[in-house]
Amino acid sequence: MAGEDVGAPPDRLWVHQEGIYRDEYQRTWVAVVEQGTNFLRARIQQVQVPLGDAVRPSHLLTSQLPLMWQLYPEQRYMDNNSRLWQIQHHLMVHILLDMLQKDPCQKQACEIQKCLQANNYMESKCQAVIQELRKCCARYPKGRSLVCSGFEKEEEEKLTLKSTSK
């Protein structure tokens, strides 16, 4: 890691687990898709995350986040599908105390990941741990938890799909 600029944005990010990426220096980053934009935008934050084995791309839950990003000019990133993203790097925006603290619902998110891995990614077998994350997310205001912002968006998408399929 000699020569690493800790404050510099990563040149490349590879998915390790749902919403968690590793860069060229093996630093871990949490990524969340920004809501309500007309173009692709994500917020990334460098966070030390205890990682297990990397998840195979075919086992990732449905996500708007790509498998890989590469830095391009003007602080934009191109993903593995040749789409350009605006990435808000943790040092450029929202340096808030609560963003620097540990995510309050990280433990529940890790429990879901363990359950899914143990049950061949069958969500129906992990409803109890998913409910624990719902309870945790309900205790905090929107934006307080990166884990919850991604989880809540996924829950909304499931409800939308369910209502349109009726």
UniProtKB/TrEMBL annotation:
KW GTP-binding (keyword) present: no
Entries under Gene3D superfamilies matching the protein: CytochromE C oxidase copper chaperone, TCL1/MTCP1
Compartments, record wording: Mitochondrion
Major localisation: mitochondrion
Keywords in alphabetical order: Disulfide bond, Mitochondrion
Span of the signal peptide: none
One example GO MF annotation: protein serine/threonine kinase activator activity
GO cellular component: mitochondrion
Pfam families in alphabetical order: CMC4, TCL1_MTCP1
KW Disulfide bond (keyword) present: yes
Annotated disulfide bonds: C105-C136, C115-C126, C137-C148
Summary of the function given for this chain in its UniProt record: Enhances the phosphorylation and activation of AKT1 and AKT2.
Family the entry assigns: Belongs to the TCL1 family.
Subunit annotation: Interacts with AKT1 and AKT2 (via PH domain). Does not interact with AKT3.
This protein's name: Cx9C motif-containing protein 4
